[in-house]
Specification:
- The chain is an alpha+beta fold.
- The longest helix has 21 residues.
- The protein is elongated and about 70 Å long.
- The protein has ten helices and seven strands.
- α4 runs antiparallel to α7.
């Protein structure tokens, strides 16, 4: 009896020890352009609870240690795409990375690369939004079928043709990972081109030529050198690098058709 009592007590002690949170240090990028001449890093020690993601740690800092820290987040479920940051030099969604995977630390947290900083970990995303508008990421119809005919139906195969590209959540991690965008700010960028391709491949859409006038230009698909980092960091496996290469093949085919068969409809 004493033996089993001892065993249960020992198991309880081990369980309590495992449940106790260790600590981990976060080195957080700080910058307020209204007050600071240059950025700096501030260290915070936070609990390393086994079920905490990096976003939980940032919220802990905001709520308990330093209310001046600024960052974006919304859903905490990998859907809204607003909590993207550089973690130890890699663009990730902070709601999808567990603190325990970075033990013993420290974890360096910075705003996404290639974007102007508004404050701390918040970036200015106007450039992405303006470029997205240019490719018209919505269904364009030259003529609408009568309402009496019902909705536009698609087969499973027609849906599968563009579904992968429709998974984009506009997190812009691909822009932060793309060396071309860092060197050539006029580049439309991976997500914008992938979203343009999403609608080009939609059987309901009739705006392909309008998008091609924007995407198949020097600052569009032809800027891409196929490094592939955009697809490597994409949290939704959209594969924007693949979308760009497919578009290059199609654009080249269309150009040759226009030369060899100028009377044909591209």
């Amino acid at each position: 009896m004493f033996f089993w009592s001892f065993v249960f007590t020992l198991m309880s002690l081990v369980s309590n020890t495992n449940s106790m949170s260790s600590k981990i240090t976060l080195e957080v990028f700080r910058y307020n352009p209204e007050n600071d001449d240059e950025p700096s890093f501030q260290s915070y020690e936070v609990p390393c609870n086994k079920d905490w993601v990096i976003l939980d740690a940032l919220n802990y800092i905001k709520d308990n240690l330093d209310g001046t820290l600024s960052f974006r987040w919304s859903c905490r479920m990998g859907v809204c795409g607003s909590c993207g940051m550089m973690i130890n030099g890699t663009p990730v969604l902070t709601c999808a990375k567990f603190l325990k995977d970075y033990l013993p630390g420290p974890i360096r947290i910075e705003p996404m690369e290639h974007f102007p900083v508004v404050k701390d970990l918040i970036i200015e995303m106007s450039d992405f939004v303006e470029k997205l508008k240019r490719v018209k990421p919505y269904i364009i119809r030259k003529e609408e079928q009568p309402l009496s005919e019902g909705e536009y139906k698609q087969t499973p195969a027609q849906l599968a043709a563009y579904k992968q590209y429709s998974m984009c959540i506009n997190c812009m991690l691909c822009y932060s990972a793309c060396p071309v965008y860092g060197l050539e700010p006029d580049f439309l960028g991976p997500a914008v081109i992938a979203l343009g391709q999403r609608y080009n491949l939609d059987s309901r859409d009739q705006g392909k030529k309008e998008r091609e006038e924007v995407i198949a230009q020097d600052d569009g698909i032809w800027q891409c050198t196929f490094v592939g980092e955009c697809s490597a960091v994409c949290p939704k496996d959209v594969d924007p690098a693949g979308a760009i290469q497919r578009y290059k093949v199609e654009s080249t085919t269309n150009w040759w058709k226009s030369v060899l068969m100028p009377w044909s409809d591209k």
